[in-house]
Design a protein that fits this description.
The chain has nine helices and seven strands. The protein is an alpha+beta fold. A five-stranded mixed sheet has the order 3-4-7-5-6. Helix 4 runs antiparallel to helix 5 and helix 4 runs antiparallel to helix 9.
Length: 229
Amino acid sequence: MAKETFLATAGLIGLKLLELHGIDAKRFAQQLGIGSTDVPSPKTRMAVELADKAFERAAQLIADPAFALRAAECWHPSHLGTLGYAWLSSGSLRTALKRLVRYSRILGQKAVCRCDALPDGLRFVFDHGRGDKPIGPVLTDYALSQLVGMCRENYGPSLTLDAVTLRRTQPVDPTPYTRYFACPVTFDAKEDSFLLPLHVADRPLPTGNHELVETFDSILAKQLAELQD
């Protein structure tokens, strides 16, 4: 059975996150058996289990239990390949998040996500796919903080969230979460999610480009088909 994989360029975000916390990324990678931290080919993929080991090791080395919330500071569109540029070209955050759901397996084959259209907003739900493993909450911090950061990149600093729910047990100090998400955060929840108000989810974005995004979608559809094959 084929191993689940993730896009290697997305791993550069994790390496930059390590550097933010004072860890030598090159040495860290070598200890995991990764021979090089140079920018990989856009088509290079790596085993998901390697990423899990990296996060487990990082959690042991970094004293801050909320360290993964800084992932948004490390993101660049190129790290997500074609999907990163399709995101920036999306007409609204609703279409951007739905596009992410549609092509998320290109980024990684373990986690899954969905968008729920609610009367009062758009709810994005993320499932790290690790069950009750201790590394799960760290992966959620990493993913949701990065996604909210991407939304802010497209929408602007005035973006507001209505709510965030996290499956993780409430930490001793929840301040890093309330400060980053800037909205009510519920811990010990059934799902990991954030809720965008309707006027935020559907506001036309100045970076939207219909012609570009059609081209990107065509490329992404091909990449997804190749991955499934």
